[in-house]
Design a protein that fits this description.
Layout: E1 3-7, E2 12-18, E3 23-29, H1 34-48, E4 58-64, H2 68-85, E5 89-93, H3 94-106, E6 110-118, E7 121-129, E8 134-143, E9 155-158, H4 160-164, H5 166-171, E10 176-180, H6 187-199, H7 222-226
Parallel strand pairs: 1-4, 4-5, 6-9, 9-10
Antiparallel strand pairs: 1-2, 2-3, 6-7, 7-8
Helix pairs in contact: 1-2, 3-6
Length: 231
Amino acid sequence: MRILAFDASTEICAVALGDGVRWVERSERAGQRHSELLLPMIRALLSEAALTLADLDGIAFGAGPGSFTGLRIACGVAQGLALGADLPVVGVATLEAMAEAARTSHDWTRVVAALDARMQEVYLAAYEYDGERWRVHVEPCVVKPDAAPLPVGRWSGAGNGFGAYPVLRERLAGVLSACDEIVLPTAVAIGNLALPRFAAGEGVAARDAAPLYVRHRVALTTAERDAGLRL
């Protein structure tokens, strides 16, 4: 099974193409340029592999939580490509993809993933890997760092939420045994998580793909925008 996977939920725009054994990947710090970069990166990767969308079995995207704009871009691109090529789509939670990236990098199997949600909040979830899949211990949520839920047992922390808000690390100090503040969701991690879902027939039609916002506030006040705040 060969799939295309991509993510635009953070400042990194990432695309991967592969089958779970071999992946080719491109990533670039995009800032606010995901809409400019994502499709050209996808086209370049397909061209490099001498493939077309018709050669694929599915499309996976980072569904969120994360940047509202980035999530909409990724979902929209997934829908457009999948509709034109009649392919199923799988949206993968970005916090789970962070846990998977941490497992790949550090062999961690119990991960608290925390992504900077701005507005003095973090997107947070806790996952445990059972040897086949990740099990959710704390569902994805958006919280103030000093009010983060405390999972039971010992965990590793992953994500820029820990770097952006030192109080989060203090809050979880009693359960954390290690922490990597630079972990972000990767396209390869999204692809690896999506493959078994495609194999199980869990892909959905393009029209049914949707972002996972968690935070449902979609706009800032004028004062907040003037202060440089971003959702």
